[in-house]
Amino acid sequence: MESAHKDLTDRKDFIAMDLATLSKQPDALAAFRSMVQITGLTDQQVSDQLGIDPAQWSRILKGNAHFPINKLCRLFDVCKSEAFLQYLLYARGYEPKLVKRKSRLERELEAAIKRAEIAEMKAAVLTEAIGGRINGQK
Length: 138
What we know:
single chain; mainly alpha; 434 Repressor (Amino-terminal Domain); two-stranded antiparallel sheet; disordered N terminus
């Protein structure tokens, strides 16, 4: 069976920022800009996808305006990276490795697989016990 959780850095479309790069970021703004830069997208493309005026986006990247926090998850999607989130974890003393929690469907599937494995094990034990009695063994 696969790992219990999905390491987000294993996603094929995910652009990871390694620990060496994370640790070199002098502050959150630098980490924010680095995450945007590693995408290869232009500032215009990012601002368009976020629905932020390009001039406002420019001010955000310069640290002269605040990023609308309610767009942070969308930014991660646009950048295909959670590098800024990793930076925040690292800066606060946590391991920056992100592990995605299982969905309800994944948890239900695991439980069903476990029940099936237990049922198979019981069936094998019963089959062996019955087979032994039929062959004259006790």
